Amino acid sequence: MRVPLSWLREYVDLPAAETGRDVQTKLIAAGLEVETVEQLGAGLKGPLVVGRVLTVEELTGFKKPIRFCTVDVGQANGTGEPQEIVCGARNFAVGDKVVVVLPGAVLPGDFQIAERKTYGRISRGMICSASELGMGDDNSDGIIVLPPEHEAGTDAIELLELHDEVLDIAVTPDRGYALSLRGVAREAATAYGLPLRDPALLDVPGPNSYGYPVKVDDPVGCDRFTARTVTGLDPEARSPIWLTRRLQKAGMRPISLAVDITNYVMLELGQPLHAYDRTLVDGPIGVRRAEPGEKLTTLDGVQRVLDTDDLVITDNRGPIGLAGVMGGANTEIADAAPDPGTGRVRGTTEVVIEAAHFDAVSIARTARRHKLTSEASRRFERGVDPLAGAAAAQRTVDLLVLLAGGTAEAGVTHVIAPSAPRTVAMPADHPDRVAGVAYGRETVVRRLQEIGCDVYGQDELVVTVPSWRPDLAAPNDLAEEVIRLEGYENLPSSLPRPPSGRGLTARQRLHRRVGRALAGAGYVEALAYPFIGERVLDQLDLPADDPARRLVRLVNPLSDEEPALRSTLLPGLLGALRRNHGRGSHDLALFETGLVFHPVDEPRVPAAPPVDRRPTDEELAGLDAALPVQPRHAAVVLAGAREQSGWWGKGRPADWADAVEAARLIAGEAGTGLAVEQAQYGPWHPGRCAALFVALDGVKTPVGHAGELHPRVVKALGLPDRTCAMELDLDLVERASQGSLTAPRISSFPVATQDVALVVGADVPAAAVENLLAAGAGELLESIRLFDVFTGEQLGEGKKSLAYALRFRAPDRTLTVEEVTAARDAAVALAAERLGAVLRGA
Fold it and tell me: N or C: which end of the chain has fewer CB within 10 A?
């Protein structure tokens, strides 16, 4: 909302020395968001005067039409002689009154005016357009042509009100009253402690039986409708300068007198209005919901197919306006134009003024449904004063009579649905308890009365809310008004005191440790939207009966292509990898930890709990049981180089082992072991897929998979070749750790190392050999590490050699050679028994 300071002073006697910046500070302190203060006419210096065009000489021989004019500027040039000016505009003629800037003046933008020779003539000044004076874009209208009553030589700076300050206010949805000069003036009067001259306090005649007929079929959508009629309008009447300038300063474009007046009153009182050409309205005006298939061409020239929830204005032919949004083209006010046959000026001479109050939600939905936002819909959807309609209609009628020579018909139509004033009960000390400040009852009552409330009662206040404040519906709303008017800066600052002994849960601590560990290992966290569609599950090659295909579907999804909550983290991560690879980043390692969602079997949705008390434990448990199962997962994806090449040696690409190692890293942060077995599942390559297990309550429990993705999946998703991925259930991993981490024990006794190389079949997983060696070595084994894999002719076809480094240590003594050898032999023996492993070189 743009508020000219000169207009605001009409309703509040602000101190003469107060600038726009001062008013901005006061209004911001009162809670309004005044974003900027625009200085109109900054840098403008005269002489800038009204001139009368005496002669016009067309200059030829140039690329564009040029005119040499003489203009009467009175005594403004000091001589009284006509001023010679070269001008390229063509929208004026001899006898027209124009705006002339004389040499020595400075226009906005530090454009200095001086005599100069151009097009072979001396130009002593310039005839001005609106844009050159900072009055807005003049598009194709050319220079300003003034009404004929202004005398030549009159100061145009004062006449056009070129010096002013405009407050630009960002009006929040709960303060619709501030979309009017009346509302902003009320806030300014309260902020300065000054009286308000309310422009809505007019003598309004009561309804009678001979007003324009109106029928409201939907009293919920339209609870008030006022209609007034003005006849005998002069079709040639133009909007006066003061009216057009106020509209321009407020950010609106002048159109015609009747339309300008309705816009002016809307800005003044906050009540949107609409003027219909009475000769084009067929029968009574009606208000109803649109019927299926109805169409309306709005004032913007677009034919719109109406929805049955749209509120429309009608006559006997059907819709003539989209209520509260935009009028129809079939009853538009006509601009004055000469009749081709008679030459007489024709235009609208009779208008019906509509001042109605519409349901805010209905108007907001209609405006969004048709993607049609207007000044009227902005106000209606934020809440318009329902009692301002009659005053706004009267103000419009008065201006039409005054400026267009019309006659107001005696008929007045008021259609009003019965309603009672809104009241809110509030303890007198409620604002004190909300703010932590002792305001006292007198201050609370005074502040509420300043915003227009009627207050009754002592300890328990009964507050009647003013009609222009639909946002005041609860005690906290009233408390906010008291607090903001008393000053937010006066609220004490105090730090909250958290209770001791509380911190992050074990789940939260593990989540953070995993994130730090993966980041330290070179992974970058990528957070994706938690939405997927079935198509991506097909691309991941998941079986038809896979649990991940059971999705939790959203009632109102953001995208029809992703209508469900994710059951796996891989789609989002792989999508991020694909986008980054497509933008030139080829060496990628991404991770994410987040929730996945699985539907509950036969969910029972409980009734909504009451709002007057805290839900019971049973009610809360019922609500929790209806929610989807939401385990936390961790996932990584890799592509490109895992280690870069350089002077230190060759690099290496990321492979399936890196994905498995990421899983081991996560398990290590949880303080649990992770078993790895060869597997075949969904998106992973059948020969390069590992199943991940933990021991949960003594039972081997699967927690996820890791490895290289199947080439078919890579192609379907548009991923780089040899992309690898891992995903596991972080909650199950945490449960396997039993919620505790033990610090590593540092022994004072020496370690004994033994290396063994076992020959096994080429299809035997190294993890299986490792598990058997660990089991056979017993409790003396501290760690085991695979350090070499060898294949060759000397081993025989279908054989491979796996070399392991075994570290033995006892917690209470130095091990003897015999103990170490016995433990190593036991480990080899178990591997030989179970897998047929042979000690290499034996």
Answer: C
Helix (H, G, I), strand (E, B) or coil at 249: helix
Structure-derived torsion over alpha carbons of residues 377, 382, 383, 389, reported in degrees to the nearest 10: -30
Q: Provide the token pair at 779.
A: 């409790």
pLDDT computed for residue 140 by the predictor: 47
Q: Binning pLDDT at 50, 70 and 90, where does residue 309 land?
A: very high
CATH number at 2-41+165-192: 3.30.56.10
Percent of the chain with pLDDT over 90: 68
Cβ–Cβ < 8 Å for 89, 143: yes
CATH class of 48-162: mainly beta
Q: For the stretch 582-613, what's the b/e string if a residue is b when 16 or more beta carbons lie within 10 angstroms of its beta carbon?
A: eeeeebbbbbbbbbbbbeeeeeeebeeeeeee
Q: Give the CATH fold of the 423-488 domain.
A: Phenylalanyl-tRNA Synthetase; Chain B, domain 1 (3.30.56)
Task: From 228, 184, 246, 226, select the one nearest 468 (Cα to Cα).
Answer: 184
Beta bridge partners of 709: 684
Please provide the average confidence, as pLDDT, over all residues in the chain: 90
Q: In the CATH hierarchy, which fold is given to the domain comprising 752-839?
A: Alpha-Beta Plaits (3.30.70)
How far is residue 622 CA from its own chain's centroid? 34
| CATH classification code of 214-416 | 3.50.40.10
Residue 492: pLDDT above 70?
yes
Q: pLDDT of 619-678, one tens digit each? A: 888 888 889 999 999 999 999 999 999 898 899 999 999 999 999 999 999 988 888 888
Tokens 């434990």 belong to residue: 617
Protein fold of 506-609+617-736: BirA Bifunctional Protein; domain 2 (3.30.930)
Whether pLDDT at 814 is above 90: yes
755-783 pLDDT, tens digit per residue, is 999 999 988 888 889 989 999 999 999 99
SS3 label, residue 353: strand
What tokens were used for 144?
Answer: 């300003």
